[in-house]
Amino acid sequence: MKSRNYFLFITVLLVCVLVLNTSCKEINKASVNIPKTDSVIEQYDIDRLEPSQWWVGFKSKNLQLLVKHPRISEASPSINYQGVSIQKVHKADSPNYLFIDLEISDETKAGQFNIYFKFKEGKELIQTYTLKERLLNAEDYKGFDSSDAIYLITPDRFSNGNSENDIIEGLLEQDLDRKQDYKRHGGDIEGITNHLDYIESMGFTQLWSSPLLTNNMSDGSYHGYAITDYYEVDPRFGTLETYIDMSKQAKAKGIGVIMDQVANHCGVSHWWMQDLPFKDWVNQQERFLNKEHLNNSNHRRTINQDTYASRIDKKNMTEGWFVPSMPDLNQRNPFLAKYIIQNSIWWIETLQLRGIRQDTYPYPDKDFMANWAGTIMNEYPNFSIVGEEWTNNPLLIAYWQDGHKNKDGYNGNLPSTMDFAMQEHIRDALNQKESFGEGLIRMYEGLANDFAYANPDMIMAFTDNHDMSRVFTQLNGDVTNTKIALSYLLMLPRIPQIYYGTEILMNDFEKPGDHGLIRTDFAGGWKGDSVNAFTGEGLSNDQKDMQSYLKTILNFRKHNKTIHQGKTIHFIPSEGTYFLFRIFEGEVVVHIINKNEEPITIDLKRYAEIGLKGKTLKNVVTGESFIWNDDITLKEKGSVIFTSKL
Description:
Radius of gyration: 30 Å
Distance between the termini: 121 Å
Helix content: 25-40%
Number of strands: 26
Largest sheet: 8 strands, parallel
Shape: elongated
Number of helices: 16
Strand order of the largest sheet: 16-15-14-13-10-9-18-17
């Protein structure tokens, strides 16, 4: 009896152990359910995860993922991939977001892995994530400098390379009408790619286009500055692949690509405006949600430098919306700040950019902007960023540039700013009559202000752009003055930028300053155009002459180290003339502006310190020779460029 009971006890015990062991395996299998990384099956259950992919090999080992999915805050994420670890998981105010902090070690290999989102009720979502190898070393992302010349394009108005993407079903704006200044006209990325040969032949080395990301707005979306998806190319412009292809083809022709980015605001139709992650994702968020009146920015950008500025003025500047259709982003929210910085890096790597132009630079939180620029320049030490500071005050322009010694201790980490002050000086100098305080002295004094800049040769100068009247309009249709303005621009110790169509005297005389007209179609960019600036067909004599003139100077400048690096000496304007010299390694480049309508002879002994006496110079535009002796007779109004290098 005892032995029988013992046998039964042992049998029951073995059965229990077997059942328990089997049950434990099933529990472990159900709770873990993580396959080895070498057998990843691609699965994309999450509505939105950004950035959608990343790279190994950055100085910073941290990556923050934005995860957007219904009730995702109730899930617990996990990853099983060597070198990648979850450091922290953040819940947002909305239950439909998670922010996941990852650490990517130096040893991490490129590849795919799954991110698992396990809900308490047992439901599991899987999102496959990719880490890629970087195509270039960080040091090889070389930016732009004073050796470059930048061509600025409004893509919708440059050339229509693919008419099939003119109207995209499902987007809010469905109109296409070239006769309407504020409708879409159909220009796209393929249109730019198709004419890279033209851009290269003109002598440009950098291409800056207005933003190409999705602007899913109800109207007026052609300009690109109301972004509704920071990771998506607007399908009316093309695809990510066509954007990458354009960048590759440009690079093959020696042209760098500069991306226009917007950290200050987004479009009101941005996907997150329907479900904002945090209560402070955008400024005046409660007012927006309650459909109350929103304050626009006071646009008084001086508050960034003003030591006497009131708190309310500062608040109204940085927290006011740029316009009612563009929500003002709150960069003081650390998750949004991280999102913007990572987005910039994502595009740098994806497109192998040469630079970024940052829109409305003084409007966001200025400490964030210093961190944004500093983070990028730390990762890419040879990269370039230019910020838009629209002011005629050099002190405000200088404040943002890296290395400038500001009284408040602020260092913006920004390599370059935009020279709106010089633009105004050039315009006024050529429109005004000569007097002691007006005329060419405005150009001279504008350049004399360079003492304010830490690196004046890294400032971007221009005669016009997409936000102001065409230079030909500003100069009242005077072809000669337009040539003077452009030749002076291209001789300065600056990075010059020229707006598309300047070379064919595009204008906005009909409605001066109207943005839709300023950004008009480039002749020949559409099939059936009667005038074609790419081939010269149908251009007037003045247009052909201007195109040839600009092309000659740009291509001379392209290979001229004296203009890129040379010492600058200029002389106070006299007798309606202004002499500027660039000097480097034995070469002298001379730029002479003459505003006199009648022939005038100028005594050259005043310029003896340059050391040109008896030397033969060549006219860059005409090819004619001139011996620099005691005087020079300037037969007509205009500008002359000489080089001592024959």
